[in-house]
Give the backbone structure.
Amino acid sequence: MIVIRSTLQLSDFKLDIDIELPGRGVTVVFGPSGCGKTSLLRTVSGLEPRAIGRLTINGQIWQDDATGRWLPAHQRGAGFVFQQPGLFPHLSVLGNLLFGQRRRGAGQLDQSAVINTLELDRLMDRPVTELSGGEQQRVALGRALLSNPRLLLLDEPLAALDAHSKYKLIPLIENALQLLDIPALYVTHSSDELVRLADHVALMENGKVTATGPVLEVFSNLDNPIANVDDSFSVLRGAGVGEQSPGLEAVCTDRGNLFYVPQGSVAGVHQVRLKVQARDVSLTLEKPIKTSILNILPAIVEEVSNPSSLGNCTVKLDLNGDKLLARISDFSRQQLRVEPGLHLFAQVKAVALLQSN
């Protein structure tokens, strides 16, 4: 268990955190720029000595103002990967990795496992100054892992990369995070990274954590402000079941719902997460007979938000246990008489689904 009860007063900003997070798995700290995500990581790592409060990581006390305990950053055993890699330019890839290994804490992590997982084997003798941005971030992550940290902190590690580099690096990060049975805090404002990597999520706004919980639950909760904006989305989990129709494959969710995706989207992938934008979900009282929309599923209205200032509302749907959000106009809500308990059909375009293993 990670317990963070901390305040940090800066010149124009105050961080005020009181949360408990799981002691294993990846918690994604998600929110807009300037909400305090990086300040939170710096506080946890010991880089903000002005922070006051209490911090424990799986039973180990890193800070407790009541007893005067304060572990400096180098004694906390946190591995930190920044937005900029921060590699030692005078060292090769191997030299940077060995630096991390010299700082390792108790326990053993196979160096070859890290190198193979991050696909660094062909780069070992290269100067880091000759690497691409994505390759440098892989080295930075490998260096952090080889220090055998008690907690891994990643501060928007993909933010400086182009779209192609991000696409290549995300699955490598995903695999690398499975090497150590420790918690990781991953900061991002990218919903795609969140869907791909998060076991747990902490939503931040104006220096505070507004909601925490398993990722599937948090993004289906209408009490969270993020569910009531135009770019709100749902997260579903399932498995690829292969080709179902010409040019199409299917994903079967944990609750047994089939979603069709373009062929090749889930080939060879066992576990799948689907990100569905609420604005890409439409509602109909009768099942359409002739339509280009492939995903049409029976649903029951569970909850309806109040209309926004723009005249839109969010509808929470129950699809046999799967929770799906639809963002519709309040006019449509009134015309269809959408209210809790109503049976209807949810329509989702296949292209609105984001595959993630």
The chain has a mean pLDDT of 89. The chain is about 20% helix and 35% strand.
